[in-house]
Design goal:
The chain is an alpha+beta fold. It is built from 40 helices and 44 strands.
Length: 1193
């Protein structure tokens, strides 16, 4: 294994770029696919994005989910081809060309030429494809761009034709009129899904208009309310609710008689007396309208009224006396326009209870008018508005005016005619075009439809065969949408798209639908390789029954029809890949955002159901929306979110991936994106994880260099550790936790519950770094006497990190590859990439796995409770305390805590003594308390007796509840959250609050009791730990590494305290040797090179120096006399390690030769331990032998 950098010197984004290069060099993705060829296929559909814009966080989120799931599928032994798709047709592309070329209307396109226009569209379709590819790859996603599908390719378009022909042959296609959301800016109808993308609060007129009832003795007028005055010239009927009460009222001031719903009378100006604002209190309110009569809405049905405008007066219903006789001699049913009809969609929530009907501009209006014979299905509909949203010549008075701008003119005309009853304005939410940002209108347009309404039950049955995560999206949002599904308008009157393969006669009575290029060739005599409009619009099909040729209809497919056809079209089915399609359909998995429930998910289900009575997919993951930090939609204009590229460059793709996945957005909820959240992943997950990995590498290299392992075990090979459970409890625990993690991830990922996986992964990493590594530092550093135990600990950590990389690889592919590339050096036969590895085997858990995990979890609870107690009493962790008592009713748990986990508990809590107690009542009172708010919502009145029963629970019942997580009290089953368990510390003697030096802390079932008293021995141990702490601070501040050799010194700053200091250093020898490897020296020598100093409690100086010889001046003076200073100068001038080697070679002695001023030669023999002392750091260098505790120097 190779040495690795500290995390502070590591750039995760920089390492990711190097890994991307590595993947390219080994062709990692393609090689993975090649290795899995022949394995069970796993089918995945990628929903196609537009390449006319750059990817945003929503794309990155969905792409991450797809990458995680497909990487996991590959790791679990599947062959997983992944093809990227591009949505190339539709409004987004045309809109860009319209802006660039200044195109304002359909006529502008025709002047330019459809061929020129379409080729301009083609030229920009893949404008940002390279940026997409770069971003997708930078996020670590493996997907095939080279053979990705494009909806504009002829093979894709031909399969779309095949789909449509299949539907037509099944009798599921028809041409008709449909009121649809219509964009006057883009001059095309939109789907309901598109219409819901861009709502804005606007001010619109809200007027009441009167319609004069014909042949009425009182000359009554029906009053209707509308917020779209521009639709009034197209009015053909008035609609009432047959069951509602209506009134005739008379305005005493004018004598006019009005008919409105009784419930809405107060909203008719002047109808109900109201006191004037600012008037006298005793002033009588103005007189209201007089109620002449009341009737049900059904009594109004059939009334005829005079049209407001003359434009469509010719459609007026004849008088009953003018009706033609029916076959049986009676009058025919009422027909024609300008009469009152009824429907239950009219409510009393707003308006007047009378709704004006303009069937060309309202979906309900159209339905009601056809149902009541105002119009006949299939007949033309009065629609005096052109493609640009302007009135046509049919409405001569307002011809050429944009409808929304004509509102004021129409209101003025109504006022002049005496028909304006009320004129107000109100604010409401109104749909705008998501592309042109112009107000939408609802408008009847000719369109080709796929019959969906009659297939609702089939769609629900098909959907029931699929699994959605989260399931409520399928059962609620999507299910409700299917129950109300309408026939699907699949055509658009546009240019850049897949043309409808429909050729008709001029009168539309003869229709031919083409299903393939070959069929088109046979019918037209022309062979084409491109199916866009400008290549096929001129082709005609000879009519088999009449002389005129059949010509193609003008429309192209809605791009949602294309994306819904992608399971077939991406494979050019049924013209190619028939066997592969049949083996891979339905897809195992799809994923997109919540907004696709009425988009791509819907079209996939509709087409697969109508074609095959099968779903298009088996499993679906639906993510929520990524919002700006303020909860608003991310906006480039507002710049309320950080650029994704900036986040990736600063923190790395892995951090962004894990942040997105470990959030509510994976449960189809919204995420408020925060930069700090991504930064937190690096700080709280990656750095501790990487530090554990680096800790392993450092200590493996140290062990290899130590010479303490037999030659046959070098270099380090974790496979040489004997099979079977380790003797160390924490080894067994982390191995069990790793097995449990792998089993959990496999189970949850198989169910596509990503939102449960990541929290468990994060918790495991927390346990690995903060429990296993931290508590095992001594073993892992080889500071014990048994090098084989160090080897076992390192092998355990190695395998845990290796399996963790394999488990985490689908989620964080870069950091796992980074670690794996070093780990695999110890396993020569390992695959070249972690992403070529199999997911860890997850057989049945081994015996004892659950028990050891429960015991270590119990230990962690003890440590947490003890930590809170220390904080409560301001007792720092370095200060030893007298005793810890652990109280719990589970004797097996206590046995583990007092046995194999004892050293870890005592070391972490820092206590001198520890005992356990299985009788909680000895130390505390335990009570159960009802959670009133929770119980009240669920039990209602039964909450009170159940609450009393909870308060009366015995200790045995409370124990049962703690162990099982539920309990039955009477007829009620109570769960966690219904009951809260309290422990009240009472001291060991069972009275009062116990000694003041004792305190306790509990969590309901576990109690820790601590003796907080102090004595001299504990204070001295605290002092020793503080000395160690200061030394470590100096080392860290100086940037020293663990292998760097240094000496430690403690010097008394107060006169006369040296003897006491020497005593303390010796009495606390165990603490110093365990933490530092030796006892610090006293009285730092002046010639030593200083690394740093700290002052402790104003009484002692703690110092760290570069290793140097320790001279003993008195002994030197005794042997050298007046030449002692010269001997000292010679000794301090020598390189310490060289002098140490000479002493070692001389078996502890060295000769010093001096030349006096008289050139006389003097020689002195110096003995190690008598005249000078060589510290262990230099002894190790001299003998080339490692220090037993050298890592501490």
């Amino acid at each position: 294994m190779q040495e690795v950098r500290e995390s502070k010197d590591l750039s995760f984004p920089g390492e990711e770029k190097r890994i991307l290069t590595f993947w390219e060099e080994i062709d990692a993705f393609k090689q993975q696919l090649k290795q899995r060829e022949g394995a069970k296929p796993y089918s995945f559909y990628d929903g196609p994005p537009f390449a006319t814009g750059l990817p945003h966080y929503g794309h990155l989120l969905a792409g991450t989910i797809k990458d995680i799931v497909t990487r996991f599928a590959s790791a679990t032994g599947h062959y997983v081809p992944r093809r990227f798709g591009w949505d190339c047709h539709g409004l987004p592309v045309e809109y860009e060309i319209d802006k660039a070329e200044g195109i304002k209307s359909r006529e502008d396109v025709l002047k330019m030429g459809i061929d020129t226009y379409n080729e301009k569209c083609r030229s920009i379709v893949m404008r940002y494809s390279k940026e997409w590819e770069s971003t997708v790859r930078r996020m670590g996603r493996w997907i095939d761009f080279e053979s990705g599908y494009r909806t504009m390719d002829a093979t894709f378009m031909e399969s779309v034709w095949w789909v449509f022909k299949q539907l037509h042959d099944k009798g599921l296609v028809y041409r008709g009129f449909k009121v649809m959301p219509y964009s006057t800016g883009c001059k095309t109808p939109l789907s309901n899904f598109e219409a819901g993308q861009n709502y804005k609060d606007v001010m619109d007129p809200a007027i009441m208009v009167s319609f004069s009832v014909e042949d009425d003795a009182e000359k009554a007028e029906l009053v209707a309310w509308t917020t779209t005055p521009w639709t009034l010239p197209s009015n053909l009927a008035l609609c009432v609710n047959p069951a509602m009460e209506y009134v005739r009222v008379q305005d005493p001031a004018t004598g006019r008689v009005y008919i409105v719903a009784e419930a809405r009378l107060a909203f008719l100006p002047g109808a109900v007396p109201k006191a004037k604002k600012g008037g006298k209190k005793d002033a009588a309110p103005a007189a209201g309208f007089k109620v002449l009569s009341k009737m049900k809405g059904s009594a109004l049905v059939g009334m005829r009224y005079t049209p407001l405008f003359p434009f469509f007066a010719h459609l007026k219903a004849p008088r009953p006396s003018d009706s033609a006789p029916s076959a049986n001699g009676g009058a025919s049913p009422a027909a024609g326009a300008f009469r009152v009809v009824s429907d239950n969609y009219v409510t009393s929530d707003s308006g007047t209870g009378v709704v004006h009907q303009a069937p060309a501009f309202g979906e309900d209006d159209m339905r009601v008018c056809i149902a009541h014979g105002i119009l006949q299905r299939g007949e033309s509909i009065p629609c005096p508005v052109d493609a640009d949203g302007c009135f046509t010549e049919e409405v001569a008075t307002f011809s050429g005016r944009y409808v929304k701008e004509a509102d004021s003119d129409i209101i003025a005309w109504l006022k002049q005619q005496g028909r304006l009853v009320s004129n107000e304005r109100f604010s409401h939410s109104y749909p705008f075009c998501w592309r042109s940002d112009t107000p939408l209108i609802y408008k009847a347009v000719p369109s080709w439809f796929v019959k969906v309404e009659n297939a609702r039950q089939r769609l629900l049955a098909t959907t029931a065969q699929t699994e959605w995560v989260p399931s409520f999206v399928r059962d609620k949002r999507f299910g409700n949408w299917l129950e109300g599904a309408h026939d699907w308008a699949v055509s658009r009157s546009r240019f850049w798209g897949t043309p409808l393969p429909v050729w008709t006669s001029a009168d539309g009575k003869e229709v031919v639908v083409v299903g393939s290029v070959e069929e088109l060739h046979k019918l037209t005599g022309h062979k084409v390789t491109d199916l866009h409009r400008h290549f096929i619009d001129g082709l005609t099909i000879p009519s088999p029954s009449r002389g005129e040729p059949l010509r193609r209809v003008d429309e192209v497919f809605d791009c949602w029809f294309e994306s819904g056809s992608m399971p077939y079209a991406q494979l050019h089915y049924p013209f190619e890949n028939v066997d592969f399609f049949r083996s891979s359909f339905p897809a195992d998995f799809v994923a997109e955002g919540l907004d696709q429930t009425r988009g791509w998910f819907y079209t996939l289900i509709v087409l697969s159901t109508l074609l095959f009575d099968q779903p298009a997919f088996k499993n679906l993951v639906c993510n929520g929306l990524v919002l700006a930090a303020d909860g608003k939609k991310m906006s480039k204009r507002l710049k309320n979110y950080p650029d994704p590229a900036e986040i990736i460059e600063e923190y790395g793709a892995d951090a962004l991936r894990l942040y997105l996945i470990n959030s509510p957005v994976v449960r189809a909820e919204s995420l408020r994106f925060r930069r700090e959240g991504v930064q937190g992943v690096v700080r709280e997950v990656f750095i501790p994880w990487y530090n554990a990995f680096r800790f392993l590498v450092q200590n493996v290299l140290r062990l290899e260099a130590s010479g303490r392992l037999p030659t046959h075990m070098l270099p380090f090979n974790p496979a040489q550790v004997e099979a079977g459970p380790s003797a160390n409890v924490l080894d067994r625990w982390i191995q069990a936790a790793t097995r449990s993690l792998a089993a959990f991830v496999r189970t949850e990922m198989s169910a596509y519950r990503l939102y449960t996986v990541v929290p468990r992964l994060v918790q495991f990493l927390e346990n690995l770094t903060n429990v296993y590594v931290r508590l095992n530092r001594t073993r892992l550093r080889g500071q014990g006497n048994d090098p084989m135990d160090c080897h076992t600990a390192l092998a355990t950590l190695f395998h845990v990190l290796l399996d963790t990389c394999k488990v985490m690889a689908p989620f964080t592919p870069f950091i796992c590859e980074l670690m794996y590339q070093n780990l695999r050096r110890a396993l020569p036969k390992a695959p070249q990439s972690v992403h070529w590895c199999d997911f860890p085997e997850t057989g049945p858990l081994q015996e004892g796995d659950e028990g050891i995990q429960a015991s270590v979890e119990g230990m962690q609870r003890v440590l947490d409770l003890a930590r809170v107690l220390r904080e409560r009493h301001s007792k720092p962790l370095k200060q030893p305390l007298r005793r810890l008592t652990i109280v719990h009713s589970d004797k097996a748990l206590l046995a583990d805590l007092a046995g194999q986990l004892r050293q870890y508990v005592m070391g972490e809590v820092n206590v001198v003594e520890m005992d356990t107690c299985s009788d909680p009542l000895r130390y505390c009172n335990i009570k159960a308390h009802p959670e009133w708010q929770v119980l009240g919502k669920r039990l209602g009145k039964a909450m009170v007796p159940v609450g009393k029963a909870i308060q009366g629970m015995t200790f045995a019942q409370i124990e049962e509840f703690n162990q099982k997580g539920h309990i039955s009290l009477g007829e009620h089953q109570l769960q966690e959250g219904d009951i809260k368990v309290f422990t009240e510390f009472k001291g060991p003697e069972g009275g009062g609050e116990g000694p003041t030096t004792m305190d306790a802390n509990g969590d309901g079932s576990m109690l820790v009791v601590m003796d907080l008293s102090e004595d001299e021995s504990l204070l001295e141990a605290f002092w020793a730990r503080e000395v160690v702490n200061r030394i470590q601070k100096i080392r860290k501040a100086a940037g020293l590494q663990e292998g760097d050799k240094v000496d430690f010194w403690v010097t008394a700053l107060r006169e006369g305290e040296a003897p006491e200091l020497e005593r303390r250093l010796q009495t606390q020898r165990e603490i110093f040797e365990h933490a530092l490897g030796l006892v610090p020296y006293m009285q730092r020598q002046a010639h030593a090179v200083l690394v740093g100093t700290e002052v402790l409690r104003d009484s002692h100086e703690v110092a760290v120096t570069v290793p140097a010889l320790h001279l003993r001046p008195a002994a030197l003076h005794k042997v050298a006399g007046k030449d002692a200073p010269a001997v000292e100068a010679w000794l301090t001038s020598r390189e310490p390690s060289a002098l140490a080697r000479e002493l070692h070679a001389g078996q502890g002695s060295v000769s010093v030769a001096l030349l006096t001023e008289q050139n006389a030669r003097k020689s002195f023999t110096l003995q190690e331990g008598v005249h000078l002392h060589v510290p262990p750091s230099l002894q190790a260098l001299a003998s080339h032998a490692p220090l037993a505790n050298g890592s501490r120097h």
